[in-house]
Design goal:
three-stranded parallel beta sheet, globular, 91 residues, 3 helices, alpha/beta, Barnase, Chain D
């Protein structure tokens, strides 16, 4: 299994989070940097992959809303692709 660790506690914007995930998870250059593209990448894995995403317990308003949407995308991707799993840690 491949593990990806992403510490997003200091990320303050959705755009910055998408860029960070692209590089942390080795997504290709053409990655779309949006939630649809994230879902597509996660459901495309053909071998076991696990993401551990660490987020702030008290994110700013913009990130709080966005992180909820990211969590739903991760859940949907894990439901769709049994090769993908994730865990979100709040610190």
């Amino acid at each position: 299994m491949r593990y990806f660790y992403a510490d997003a506690r200091n990320i303050e914007t959705p755009k910055a989070l998408q860029i960070y995930l692209q590089y942390q998870m080795n997504f290709p250059e053409w990655y779309g940097r949006n939630l649809d593209a994230l879902y597509d990448m996660l459901t495309d894995y053909a071998e076991p992959v696990s993401l551990v995403l660490t987020v702030s317990k008290a994110p700013g308003d913009e990130m709080k809303s966005y992180l909820g949407r990211v969590k739903r995308v991760l859940e949907d991707a894990a439901d769709e692709n049994n090769h993908f799993s994730f865990r979100i840690l709040e610190q």
